[in-house]
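User: Predict the structure for this protein chain, please.
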Amino acid sequence: MKQCIQTITWRFKDTSETYPQLKKKQIQITSPSEMYEQFKFLFLGEVKEKFLVFWLSSSNSVMGFEEISSGLLSSSLVHPREVFRGSIVATCANIILAHNHPSGNREPSKEDIAITEKLVSAGKIIDIKVFDHIIFCDDGFTSFVERRLI
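Assistant: Here is the predicted structure, written as structure tokens:
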């Protein structure tokens, strides 16, 4: 029996979408509140949790973002593979994690803290820093950095 080795060629296509809600084309993130104000429209009115990763350049400008998962009513599934795959392809320097709590409760859950710790550790291995993890609610946000959870 002859063994066959398979190779895979990845082809990525840059896509762009216009978001009229964005006030500026080039967004440089200088604080968690700025991140919330610029991107809260992505989470407003959502009834399920969704988890996004924002790719930052070395000057902290948002290069793009990707929805990693859209979950159930009160949770979403997140794995380092999915979080960092796009980050590596985008050749970003840093990332910001973001998800919403449709309940309006801004407090991080045990699961939120655990996945953040796991992603920070994975980022250290591949040299992509997790700058923050922000929980978006319709009336405000929680920053893991401000809470000293990162």
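DSSP finds three helices and five strands in the chain.
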